[in-house]
Amino acid sequence: MKVHNAEIVISAVSPKQYPETDLPEIALAGRSNVGKSSFINTLIQRKNLARTSSKPGKTQTLNFYLIEDTLHFVDVPGYGYAKVSKSERAKWGQMIETYLTQREQLRAVVSLVDLRHAPSQEDIQMYQFLKYYDLPVIVVATKADKIPRGKWNKHESVIKKALDFDKSDTFIIFSSVTKEGKEEAWQAIEQAIK
Ligand code: GDP
């Protein structure tokens, strides 16, 4: 998809605030700093619509972006901040759980992991949670430019094994620096919203 129009529609904390449309939605989840904002900005060809390197402690909201009047990207706040209090974490968990389990037009979840490392416990939990609810997942392994191409396969295998990756899901090796995987990511998203 060539994107010319992308705009933030709302930062929501509760279902009442979700946009009242039936446009298909693609959620994006990943631990803080994994490269989620960079992924979104690469796909929509913007330098900084989705904020990069969001700071801990900022309001934890679900950010809905309208893309070409045909779908919403729903940016789920990053997990894995040690500094966030237990009660904040519980609130965060509830907010995303409500969204992911109850939103009818949610078609797939882009789950971002870092290609360089084995998935964290939280990455694994997130993936298992999505599989439990039968949500199609597009695993995007970021920062591919930081390791040599010859090692990509090995890293992909490590990640798939740790996640207990479901063969019906899609796995994409991605870099916002080289744009590797951008077309593949769009293809997977377009397939999911068909
Ligand atoms: P977010 O917290 O998940 O939204 O992550 P950001 O998109 O803000 O990225 C976190 C940091 O990783 C920033 O310093 C980015 O410049 C860097 N980064 C993100 N994606 C890539 C990538 O594909 N390659 C490299 N080399 N750095 C990246």
Automatic annotation (TrEMBL):
GO terms for biological process: division septum assembly. One of its GO terms (cellular component) is cytosol. Residues 22-194 form the EngB-type G domain. Keywords: Cell cycle, Cell division, GTP-binding, Magnesium, Metal-binding, Nucleotide-binding, Septation. Belongs to the TRAFAC class TrmE-Era-EngA-EngB-Septin-like GTPase superfamily. EngB GTPase family. Necessary for normal cell division and for the maintenance of normal septation. HAMAP family: GTPase_EngB. This is Probable GTP-binding protein EngB. It comes from Enterococcus saigonensis.
